[in-house]
Write a sequence for this structure.
């Protein structure tokens, strides 16, 4: 039986921070404080007065539709999809407008992944599999299989999980 | 620890057949053939020339937004939500326009169920829990806990699972 690999979307397949940086730099001059993201949130790296606007953007139609794709994720996930049972599991129901955006984004950039392989949820605790790749400890904590923390500026202080740096490393380990 | 109860939406909480019947009866005179639904599909009960139209309606925005609620499901699920860990798991990603509709429908009729408790997916095989209530054997087959088949005209010939007839019976068993 094929091993089941569970992959997160935001900050693993989709470059949420990249989109935030682009949007911010077009509008503001103050530097981004990557050190403050260590407190557990990407938004914390931006000036206090901008943070509510950035949080609000997550609820707006279109935000998740136009995210850049993480480097090498397409080729590596294509090969993973051929070899394993792949599911994409995204904590998305907090943002009702993200649901269709996320499906369309996935169809555009990962056309080899079908609607059968997508899970949009609020809590990942009821998902099972052999390997979970996610940038949040709160999503990994209940998972019964191997827990791989995908490196991001907001999780650099998290030490409970095996860390993977990028898709090149994931490819080397799984393929 | 609270037992985890997994509940399906369509034909368990939401009366899909009821909505189909209403729509059909307003437009056509030929009787509905409930016997043909035994082949495994509600749509089969309608005349052949109407079936593609009914299937197409599932893909249109609004169909899942305006479904009637199954009798007694609100009161019983309110009490289940107080006593157990409840998740609503709906096979929805085949119908991208259903995603937001389903969330809004749930908020309207079951306001005590939060976005954290909702899972919209393509395949339920990666979901775990203690009891799953679903009208399709294909959703129950991989579930590791108790599998309860919610009675519907399309599943009357299915004998592999424990059958529950309605929410009154579910309430009696769980509360």
């Amino acid at each position: 039986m094929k091993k089941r690999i569970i992959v997160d979307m935001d900050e693993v397949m989709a470059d949420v921070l990249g989109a935030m940086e682009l949007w911010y730099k077009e509008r503001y001059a103050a530097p981004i404080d990557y050190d403050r993201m260590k407190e557990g949130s990407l938004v914390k790296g931006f000036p206090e007065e901008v943070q509510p606007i950035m949080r609000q953007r997550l609820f707006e139609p279109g935000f998740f539709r136009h995210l850049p794709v993480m480097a090498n994720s397409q080729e590596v996930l294509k090969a993973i999809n051929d070899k394993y049972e792949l599911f994409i599991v995204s904590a998305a129901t907090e943002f009702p407008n993200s649901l269709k955006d996320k499906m369309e984004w996935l169809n555009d950039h990962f056309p080899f992944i079908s609607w059968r392989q997508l899970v949009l949820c609020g809590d990942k605790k009821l998902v099972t599999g052999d390997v979970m790749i996610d940038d949040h400890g709160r999503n990994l904590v209940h998972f019964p299989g191997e827990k791989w923390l995908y490196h991001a500026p907001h999780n650099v202080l998290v030490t409970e999980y095996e860390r993977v740096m990028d898709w090149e490393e994931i490819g080397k380990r799984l393929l």
